[in-house]
Design goal:
The chain has 199 residues and is an alpha+beta fold. It contains two helices and eight strands, in the order αββββββββα. Helix content is 40%, strand content 34%. It is a single-pass membrane protein; Single-pass type I membrane protein.
Amino acid sequence: MLRKLAVLTFALVASIQSAAAFNVIVPAQERRCFFETLDKGDNLHISFQVGEGGHLDVDFWITDPTESLVEDARKSASATYNHVATQKGKYEYCFSNTFSTLTEKTVGFNVLVMKPHKEDPTHKSDPLDNEIRELAAGIEEIKNEQEYTMARERTHRNTAESTNSRVVWWSLFQSGILFLVCVFQITYLKRFFEVKRVV
């Protein structure tokens, strides 16, 4: 039983071709493209989150081997896409910041390629095998959600720190103005009440 479980786990891990998490900086007026070589029936899962820069948005698209657009998002801060390959070849996905004139963007993204499960006709389908496959898919989704949540937390923390810094500097500026006004009023009132002698 233990050996069978180990074999099923190995088969499940082998069915996941690749899984990776990346961060990329997309300068203003530029784009960054990547590709995955897929077989027909492979499932390409991509999720991304803009962590820093401007309004936290980028353009995103996926093209198939014939360079036809299969997914498209304009000025998106975050998204998740699943695409099942309809043909074998190179699938390209791009993050574009061409609409921005000054601000670079930092994009964190996860890529997961799942191979379809092929049933062995000589063996009967095992319910444990199906359960392990479903469990592994669930674990991958949880992992992607955790990475997405961490990216959101980082974005919100950066926003809070920026806001805090602005509040501190504005408070110091107001304190300086208040001090100058006090000095001016004291000086003015002092002169107002000075007794002037006529010689």
